[in-house]
Specification:
single chain; mainly alpha; 3 helices; rod-shaped; guanyl-nucleotide exchange factor activity; RhoGEF_Guanine_NuclExch_SF; Kalirin-like; guanine-nucleotide releasing factor
């Protein structure tokens, strides 16, 4: 997920807007499929992070002599996993904001094209 963030941001914010209705509809469709791809990647990472945290936070059996040492080591790992999860969440929110801005611009341009076409008729 983290390795794709920069490319996704660039794809969401690159270039001008098409001026033809057909090109705009194609751009809107492409933009929506990009969002679905990002959302799927985010969902997978979130689920994996939650599963990992669940395993790391599960208490060891009390009869285990190494349970205190393992708990201390797992505690550090839990903090590291949480840091990564928070970083992923931050990037997801940033991507969503950039994506939403581009979506609004695409739809506004499409509405403008429809309006211009109506005026010409």
């Amino acid at each position: 997920f983290l390795s794709g963030v920069d490319a996704w941001c660039k794809m969401c914010s690159e270039g001008g807007l098409p001026s033809e209705m057909q090109d705009l509809e194609l751009a809107i469709h492409h933009h929506q499929s990009l969002y679905e791809q990002v959302t799927q990647a985010y969902t997978e990472v979130s689920q994996d992070g939650k599963a990992l945290l669940d395993v790391l936070q599960r208490p060891l059996s009390p009869g285990n002599a190494e349970s205190l040492t393992a708990t201390a080591n797992y505690s550090k790992a839990v903090h590291q996993v949480l840091d990564v999860v928070h970083e992923v969440l931050h990037h997801q929110r940033r991507l969503e904001s950039i994506w939403q801005h581009r979506k609004v611009r695409l739809h506004q341009r499409l509405q403008l094209c429809v309006f211009q076409q109506d005026v010409q008729q």
